[in-house]
Each structure stands twice: as C-alpha cells, then as structure tokens.
Amino acid sequence: MNKILSAIQDIITGNKPTGVKDVIKGDPQKIPESSMPAITIQPITTDYFKRGTRYDEKVHTVQIRLVYNAKDIVGKTYVDSGKPVVHKIEESIEIVETTNSDLETTQESIVGLLQQNHTLPNNGVNSCTTSRVIGIQYQDRNERGFPTYEVRILLEARVIANRET
Fold it and tell me: How many domains does the chain have?
C-alpha cells in the first residue's frame, strides 16, 4: 500500500493544483490550519485475492481529500485565475474535476491527473497496477474546532503481482 500512496502523492505533487499548499500522506485531521488548502492521501481498505498458483491480486481503496479552511474561501470573490467564485463548491469542482468544452476531464484537475495516470508506476516491482476513480463527495465538516470544506475522492488501485515463493 505504501508504494501506491507514494505513487499517487508523486503524481499530484508533480502537477499540484493552483492554490493548494501541500500534498501529504496521512491523517487529514493533522493538517495545520496554515497549510490549507491541502490534499491528503490515506489508505481505506485492501482486499486480497489469490489468482492461480503464482499471482495475487490486491485491491487498495485510497481516499484523497482536498481540505479547505472554510473561513478562507467563504466570501472570496476571485481566485488566482481572476474568475468570480459564487460559491466554494465551484472552486473545488474546478480543482477536482474540471472538464473542457468537450466534457473531457482536464489534466489540470485531480481526477484528470489520476485518470490520465491510470497505470501507476511500480518503482521496479514486477507487477501490473491500474487505478480508477470510484466516487467523489463534497462536504462541509466541523471536526477540527473550525469549519472546513472537503472533497473526498475514492480511488481504487488494483495490483496483480507474483506471489513470493
């Protein structure tokens, strides 16, 4: 799982969306207020399947969160691009799942980056790794003692690798 989390972190960090201050692996509750907006990457589940006598398949579910301090974005009238922001949801949609005029998800968005890099790097490991976005949730939260706005992206990474003998 650590190699999967690192590969996702590398993809997002290498193409970090405008305005995002940090991309980290770990608990989103531990992001300091000064580091927001930030993206966190954390494991959710791993399912194992035996495939024949030589291979194992692992299906990792990873949660990627874009976390804003709500007081930083409520009331903003412009973002870096100069486009008016009517509501905080519009800004997060732009970062998470922007599409072009043909409704194709752009590589400037987090989902676009993940979909374009659907074969994750294996870092020299003899395996086949593919990924797909399986869901996105937009939510207001108040778990940190101050309000946040979060977008949660669920990603499934499927790894088929030789079994150690």
Answer: 1
Alpha carbons 96 and 112: distance in angstroms, whole number:
8
Question: What's this model's pTM, rounded to 2 decimal places?
Answer: 0.80
For residue 43, give the amino acid letter: P
- Burial (CB < 10 A; 0-12, 13-18, 19+), residue 111, is buried
CATH of the domain at 100: 3.30.2000.30
Reported as a single tens digit per residue, the pLDDT across 37-91 is 899 999 999 999 988 888 888 899 999 999 988 776 655 544 444 444 445 677 7
Q: What count of residues does the chain have?
A: 165
Q: Domain range spanning residue 81?
A: 2-162
Rounded Cα distance, 142 and 28, in Å: 13
